Amino acid sequence: MAETKDIVQTAIDAGKFNTLAKALTAAGLVETLRGKGPFTVFAPTDEAFAKLPTETLTDLLKPENKQKLTDILTYHVVSGRVTAADVSKITEADTVNGQQIKINTTSGVKINDATVTTADVEASNGVIHILDSVLLPPAASAVGA
């Protein structure tokens, strides 16, 4: 049976992506991720966002930091539908923000330093892989530092 909810609604319904939903809204990316796709989203949970220093997250959600927030969020998105089976065959992927993420499948699945805790959450316009940490693109690593 095909999933009828888009990526955004699937994440909201899961109940553990409130911070991600708030960040997507602040960055103006909700409509994009409700689009046709397909998209692959590496979605950090609320617990993953909680690992960031509070002031970092507060700072990123400010309107003047919209571009920085957008850069971080689009670093979690890959164009196309990349399932767990596909991930096991590749070592890197190009993100929507133009930078690459590293994929390591030696012991579970790691995206850069984050672990995929749940793979292949189906949505009508792509697939979600749930992460235990927020991915920071190399240029954003100094955020809040």
Strand content: 15-25%
* Spatial strand order of the main sheet: 2-1-7-6-5-4-3
Number of helices: 7
Number of structurally distinct domains: 1
Number of strands: 7
Summarize the helices and strands and which ones pair or pack:
Layout lengths: L6 H8 L3 H10 L2 H4 L5 E6 L1 H5 L3 H7 L5 H9 L2 E3 L4 H4 L4 E3 L5 E5 L5 E2 L2 E10 L2 E6 L14
Parallel strand pairs: 1-7
Antiparallel strand pairs: 1-2, 3-4, 4-5, 5-6, 6-7
Helix pairs in contact: 2-6
What does this structure look like?
The chain is globular and about 40 Å long. Helix 2 (18-27) packs across helix 6 (66-74). With 145 residues, it is α+β, with helices and mostly antiparallel strands. The protein has a single domain (7-82, 95-140), classed as FAS1 domain. It has helices at residues 7-14, 18-27, 30-33, 46-50, 54-60, 66-74, 84-87, and strands at 39-44, 77-79, 92-94, 100-104, 110-111, 114-123, 126-131. It is built from 7 helices and 7 strands; from the N terminus they run αααβαααβαβββββ.
What would the keywords be for this entry?
145 residues; alpha+beta; 7-stranded mixed beta sheet; 32% helix
Summarize the structure.
The chain has 145 residues and is an alpha+beta fold.
